[in-house]
Amino acid sequence: MGPKSPHASYAIAGGGIIGLAVAYQLTQTFPGASVTVLEKEPEVGRHQSGHNSGVLHAGLYYRPGSLKAKLATTGIRRMIAFCEEHGIPYERCGKLVVATDAEETARLRELLARGEANGLQGLRWCLPEQMREREPHVAGVAGVEVPEEGIVDYGAVCRKLAELIRANGGRVLTGSAVTRLRAQGPDWTVTAGQHEFTASFFFNCAGLQCDRVLELAGETRAARIVPFRGEYFHLAPEGAALVRHLIYPVPDPKFPFLGVHYTRMIHGGVEAGPNAVLATAREGYTWRDFAAGDVADVFTFPGFWRFLRKYPSMAFYEIRRSLSRAEFCRSLQRLVPALEEGHLLPGGAGVRAQALGPDGTLLQDFDFVLRRNALHLINAPSPGATASLAIADHLIEQVRIQTF
After folding, report:
1. Which of 47, 173, 194, 292 is spaced 20 to 30 Å from 39 by Cα?
2. Do 264 and 308 fall within a single domain?
3. How far, in Å, are 39, 88, 121, 236, 315 from residue 321 at the CA level?
4. Which residues lie below 8 Å from residue 341, measured CB to CB, with a gap of 6+?
5. Could you check whether the bond before residue 64 is cis, i.e. omega within 30 degrees of 0?
6. What pLDDT does residue 181 have?
7. Which residues in the chain land under pLDDT 50?
8. What range defines the domain where residue 167 resides?
9. Are residues 211 and 228 in the same domain?
C-alpha cells in the first residue's frame, strides 16, 4: 500500500500550482512527514501557472460526471476560501457566454444544462437586451450568465502555497530539475539539480515536462505532451472600456479549443485571446523560441500527425490568425463588434501542456498513472489552476486508498 504515515517522505516534481497544492495538502494531511517540492526554474509558478488568464472556472463546460466537472465545482469554492483566508486578490465578477447564431444557441442550451447538472448556482438565460444590460457592447442572439466565475492572481496563490509549505516544515527547492529517478526497493533515489535524496513516494506534477519525468521513472509514454501556445493581446483603454466582465464564445464541438474571449484582469486591464498554435518549444512563448528536441518529440509522434489530419483547417487558421492582427481582431469582433484593430496592444502568451493520445485524440479530462510508490499527473488542462486544491485532495486520496 502507498505511504500513509507522518514518517513517509514525499518528493513532488513541479513547482506549479498543482504540485504546490499537493505538497501543501501533504503537509496538512501528514504533519511531520518530509515533503520536498522540486522546481527547475528559479522561482515557482513560472510556466502554466503564471501564464494563464487568471480566470476562476466554475464548471459550465464539462461533461457531467467527469473528473473535470467534479473537481471544478468543488475546486472553485476551495480556491476562493483559500484566497479569502490568505488575503489573495480575487473577484467574482461573473461571465457571459454568448451565442451569435441559431446553431450556437442550440449548443448554448446544452451548456446551460451541463452547468445545472454540475451544480452551478445562479445560471441565467439571457435574451439580447438582458445581455446588453450586463455588457452594453456585446453582440449575440442569446447568452448564459455564470455569476460564480471570477478572476484571481494565480501567481500570488503559488507564492503563498510555497510560503505555507515551508512554514509547515516542507522544502521548496528551486533550480532543481529532476534528472534521475532510481527505484531502490520500495523507495526512490531522486536526483534534482545539486540534490540527491531518498523518497518513499513520488508525485509527478511536472506539467509541460510530465511525460519525460514519467519516462525517467521507467514508464512508457503512451500519451505525449504537445505544447500549444496561446497568444493574448492587451486592450488599449478605448478597447477595455467596451468590456465590463468576462465574455466568452460558445465552443465549437468540431474543434478542440475554446476560442478567443475577453478577460478582465485582477490587477486591471483586459486581455483578449488566446488562439492556439503549435509551440516550437515546450516553454516557447514566441515564434522565436525554438528547441530542436521539443520539435522532434512532436514530429516523431504518430499521434500528432493523426491529430493534424483531424483538424487541418483549424491548424492553418490558428497560424494565420497568429500572424495577422487584423484576423485576430475579426475573430474578436464576433463578440464585440465595436472593437478596432488599433485597440489591440502586444500582450503575453502561455503554453498549454496538452496530452495527446497515440490515436490523435486530445485528452480532455484529468488523467494520471498511479503506482505503488508514485503518481504521475499526465493531463491537467483548464480548470487545473482553479481546481488545484481539489485536485491535490483527489490525488492524495488515491494514494491513501490504493491497493496493489
Report:
1. 292
2. yes
3. 34, 35, 36, 20, 10
4. 325, 326, 329
5. no
6. 98
7. 1-4
8. 1-94+149-222+364-404
9. no
